[in-house]
């Protein structure tokens, strides 16, 4: 037998020639989305279009078992990619083939497919997993709250990693099918439309669908014993509200607030335009927290929000987020003002509508409440930093900026901006700077200085600047200056100050 001998160098060269040139270009996706506030959040190299989550949860033990099927597309030539996830994984498949996987860092599930994925390739990732979400700590905390009869996933800026693998950053939105089996006698609450409910062998499965792009932190799950009310809006939109059967003295006030969801949403449509999603509602589980959250189509409310009686103002706040925050989401978390400033201002507009204090009166009162040396003025709503992301200044000083805009551009242009912005960026993401440019385009006025004063300067705008912006109104000629009276609505609005104190 004749054997041809090839020198090692020549063999290596021949091998390289046999490998397609593109193979050398396959690289790992980034282990973060590039958000300066949360470098580990999200991932690079792919874009998710849909999550299908098939789950089973046992309240008695907190055991969650799941299969997540993720539809995505490679945005680069991928050799490896990450998902954000905390529970124990038993198997991963990519496009039907078993893939290698490893847990790295606090929340990274590193996946290596059997072969590289060329840019533009459709990807189907199947992840099988199980674990107890309340026992998983990421960055020192858990976003999963156990209740006497179940558990709840609702947190900001992250909550998905405790119950499903995802590209956990608002920039990568997707549609969702969430199907959850729970023991008979329990209910499961999630986003969107309840598509079906069926029982078998002691378990009841609830299946929900969200058919519009949704950020991972806005995706929620609650399991417990709930009293569920259903209805439809005048336009035929399904409404589902859910109340823990163990709310105690807060039950009546919670219902008196949340059962006005349809009314509030119809009013908000007159301010922000057509409601952007396929369902409406809210839910109140028996949790010990005090915050509320704009989980898409079905906001989460802590019972403590109703400890002092009914408060429709918090419902206004969370429903306003469906336009400002959910449909149009932050590009990076430093853009939080585009969410929270407008949700707070919607409370001021509701007060105006109800005859309990105009937005101008509320602006005057807020401005007067904080002296120049108050730390309130050192927080910059346009870029507050991760430690101040949910500081009260982002809300109240953020709303002052919006009132200053209203006074600068006039009523017609102002409300045209409020309605046009959610339509301009529907189901997408945007930066603070994008809003400034949009407001300038609609109003035809230069506004950079106004927004710099109210969103970025770490000091209280001086009286002349405040008067110029219409936030501080001068007293009548010859009259002595006096502190603005407290608007009637202020107590209810202030009761929501901890609304996002996560």
Shape descriptor: globular
Per DSSP, the total helix count is 12
The largest beta-sheet arranges its strands as: 6-5-9-3-2-12-15-14
Q: Tell me what portion of residues adopts beta-strand conformation.
A: 25-35%
Task: Please compute the radius of gyration using only Cα atoms.
Answer: 25 Å
Structure commentary:
The protein is 26% helix and 27% strand. With 502 residues, it is α+β, with helices and mostly antiparallel strands. The radius of gyration is 25 Å and the shape is globular.
Task: Pick out its properties.
4-stranded mixed β-sheet, single chain, disordered N terminus, 502 residues, alpha+beta, 8-stranded mixed β-sheet, 12 helices
Quick take:
The chain is an alpha+beta fold and 502 residues long. The protein contains twelve helices and 23 strands.
């Amino acid at each position: 037998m004749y054997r041809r001998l090839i020198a090692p160098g020549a063999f290596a060269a021949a091998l390289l020639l046999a490998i397609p040139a593109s193979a050398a270009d396959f690289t790992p996706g980034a282990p973060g989305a590039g958000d300066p506030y949360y470098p580990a959040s999200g991932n690079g190299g792919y874009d998710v279009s849909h999550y299908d989550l098939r789950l089973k949860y046992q309240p008695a033990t907190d055991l969650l078992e799941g299969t997540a099927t993720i539809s995505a597309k490679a945005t680069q030539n991928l050799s490896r990619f990450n998902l954000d996830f905390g529970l124990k994984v038993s198997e991963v498949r990519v496009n039907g083939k078993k893939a290698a996987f490893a847990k790295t860092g606090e929340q990274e599930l590193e996946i290596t497919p059997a072969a590289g994925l060329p840019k533009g390739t459709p990807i189907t990732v199947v992840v099988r997993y199980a674990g107890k979400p309340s026992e998983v700590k990421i960055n020192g905390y858990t976003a999963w709250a156990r209740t006497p009869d179940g558990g709840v996933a609702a947190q900001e800026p992250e909550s998905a990693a405790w119950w499903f693998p995802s590209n956990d950053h608002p920039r990568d939105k997707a549609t969702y099918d969430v199907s959850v089996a729970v023991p008979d006698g329990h209910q499961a609450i999630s986003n969107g439309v309840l598509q079906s409910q069926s029982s078998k062998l002691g378990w009841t499965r609830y299946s929900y669908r969200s058919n519009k792009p949704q950020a991972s932190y806005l995706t929620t799950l609650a399991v417990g014993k709930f009293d569920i009310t259903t209805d439809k809006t005048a336009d035929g939109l399904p409404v589902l509200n859910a109340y823990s059967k163990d709310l105690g003295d807060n039950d009546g006030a919670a219902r008196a607030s949340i059962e006005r969801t349809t009314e509030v949403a119809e009013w908000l449509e007159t301010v922000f335009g057509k409601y952007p999603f396929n369902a409406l509602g809210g839910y109140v589980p028996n949790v010990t927290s005090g915050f509320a959250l704009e989980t898409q189509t079905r906001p989460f409310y802590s019972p403590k929000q109703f400890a002092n009686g009914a408060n429709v103002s918090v419902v206004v706040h969370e429903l306003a987020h469906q336009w400002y925050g959910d449909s149009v989401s932050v590009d990076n978390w430093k853009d939080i003002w585009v969410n929270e400033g407008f949700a707070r201002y919607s409370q001021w507009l509701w007060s105006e509508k109800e005859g309990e204090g105009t937005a101008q009166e509320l602006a005057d009162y807020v401005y007067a409440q904080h002296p120049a040396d108050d730390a309130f003025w050192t927080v910059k709503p346009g870029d507050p930093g991760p430690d101040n992301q949910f500081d009260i200044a982002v809300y109240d000083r953020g709303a002052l900026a919006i009132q200053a805009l209203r006074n600068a551009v006039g009523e017609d242009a102002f409300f045209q901006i409020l309605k046009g912005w959610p339509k301009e960026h529907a189901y997408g993401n945007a930066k603070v700077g994008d809003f400034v440019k949009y407001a300038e385009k609609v109003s035809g006025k230069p506004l950079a200085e106004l927004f710099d004063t109210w969103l970025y300067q770490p000091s209280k705008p001086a009286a002349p600047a405040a008067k110029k912006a219409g936030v501080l109104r001068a007293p009548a000629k010859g009259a002595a200056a006096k502190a603005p009276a407290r608007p009637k609505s202020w107590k209810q609005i202030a009761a929501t100050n901890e609304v996002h104190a996560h």
